[in-house]
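Why do we care about 3D structure at all? Because function follows from shape, and shape follows, mostly, from sequence. That is the central idea of this module. The next example makes it concrete: a single protein chain, its amino acid sequence, and then its structure expressed as tokens.
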Amino acid sequence: MSGQKQHKTHFPTITEMISLEIPDLVNISPDGQKVAYTIEKTNWKENVYEKFCYIYDRQQKRSFPLTQTGVVSQLEWIDACSLAVLKVDPIQEKERPQVWLFENLVGEAWQVTDEKEGVTSFKVFAHGLLYLCNQPGEVTKKKRIRSFGNFVHFEQEQSSSALYYLDLDQLRLYHRQMKSQPYSKEEIEKKKKTKPVVKLCQSFESPLAILDFFGSPQGDCVYLNCRSKDDLVYINDTSVFQLKFNPVQIIENHLQQKGDQREQESLKSIALPKSYLVAEISPDGDHLLIQGKERDQKSYTQKSTWILDVKIVEDSPDQEGVVKNLQKIDGKLDRELHIQKWAPEGIFAIYMDGVGFEAVRITKESKVQKLDFGNLIPSFSGFDVSENGTQVFIGQNETSLAEVFIVDPNRKKEFIPITNLGKAAGHWKLGTAEKIVWESRDGVSIEGVLRKPTNYDPSLNYPLFFIIHGGPAWISEMFLLSSYQRYYPYVQFLNKGALTLEVNYRGSLGRGQEFLELNKENLGIGDLWDLESAIDFLHAKKMIDKEKIGCMGWSQGGYISAFAGVHSDHFQAVSVGAGIPSWYSYYVTTDTPDFTISYLSGTPTQNKELYEKTAPISNITQAKTPTLIQHGEGDARAPVSCAKELYRRLQEVDVPVELFIYPDMEHPITRPKENRAIMYQNLNWFSHYIFGEELDLIPESAENI
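And the structure:
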């Protein structure tokens, strides 16, 4: 068309894929007039991902940047014009996350907290904020170090989490006084001790790990989700408390240094079963939303959701009295709800369904109503609603990248985009995505996201690359941009003339409780059925070349890739990211041993045969598939010893194998240059074994990558 700039079709590089800007968080002001949202950007120079906050003004119909540096990980409106954010600058090594307040969204931000170890999370409450942090330098630990040096009592250390309340008006006065008066050093130290910030939970008999907290809108109490210790082995050893106190009085007494704070707190244990936790509190503060595993505490069991009247909490001292008054609100859904917000219009939640997500509103009558976003699929955690019902969400689908949208309550079918991030990739060849369904070896219906080159030719047989999600309780979504864009170069595979398939294998979310349990006592084995049956399905349709098949995945996807590489002859190459070669090795080294106890029905000594049967290395003497292994050295979920074990065992049987360890990474890979290395190694590995290209896993530079 004349007068318009034409873009040539572009084959994006790995570097360009990692550099794409992605919306991450959204939060709408109480009056629905302003939207705070974050955009994740790649800083190649400093090798970090940064998250900047932007404000969209609905009256002005424009966005403006609020932060210029750092990573914003939480957004909370204080009122219609003031926003608090949790922010850290990852470039400054000693800096920790702190709460910053942008008053009236103008001028410089005010740093509200100054915690040595940083703030974990915060919420608006009464006349100020509640915030959670860790204090590893507690007095008792300091005394121990002075006498005995530094050591860790494995899985027995007491938690050092602490909850604080600060009064914003009193804090403003405190800072003005500190600036206006010429205090001596002694007076300054005394003043610091009377800063209007109070450590709560002094009534705990012993330290507990505080997981989350919910302040009542009435400003008189806080509900605390706790477990006995920080370690994940105690994941189901939970307890819930109601902490009542007078925010004004407790700050005043603190400033005047009078009274025993424990006498100012009223702490009540809520008699809920283990693993039952508070998920949200109603706008009037009269009801709690409770979530927990009703049937059992197995890893694969979905959580249920109930409403509980606060009066029951206060009147029923025993568990039976509380449980019988729980009002279930998701009985027929057979999906686990992920609560987004309890607003005047109802409870808003998102759940996984098939190859995408569904958003719902649950009414006062416990009716579940799906929200209509047209052809858009809402993001898992990118949703919010204002007091007047205006919704904001991050939406995308199989033909568009993620953007932030507003839904006006008066025009609910109109989705107004307030970002245009997809414009940067508008002329890129990203391929196409479609849902396919096939029958596995045992008759189970399996779904997946099949990606094809933009110029797909149905007369050709293409190489096929499996990309396997982690979990197993997760899904692959049918989005144009895969969630594995920073691990696996699927776009480059498509543009080299291949298909990719992201399998929602048995045990994935989005298909209900029965499907979640299909790999109980069947890990690896059933997963391989799902992959091999997909090969047969696509081959029968004359879409693929069965002699050119690759498989890759991270975490549980790495385990499945390892299992496929050792137990099947269908694959010409595999890539194992943070994978598991042996469930026994995993059980004795991981921070989540309950996983194998759930899926393999006991410990290795209780069920030795099943642990061996489902281990990739159980068939190691028959292994032939070239294997690339990638692992973070600080991984606590799947410790790096797992990678070394698979590497050594494959070496013993002369299978081509390469191992790359990332020293500063844990379970995920969270820096752009390391992501580029991960992706390049995978691209080169499979290009060698599938396309016959030269093997060069360590290039001299990143130019043109």
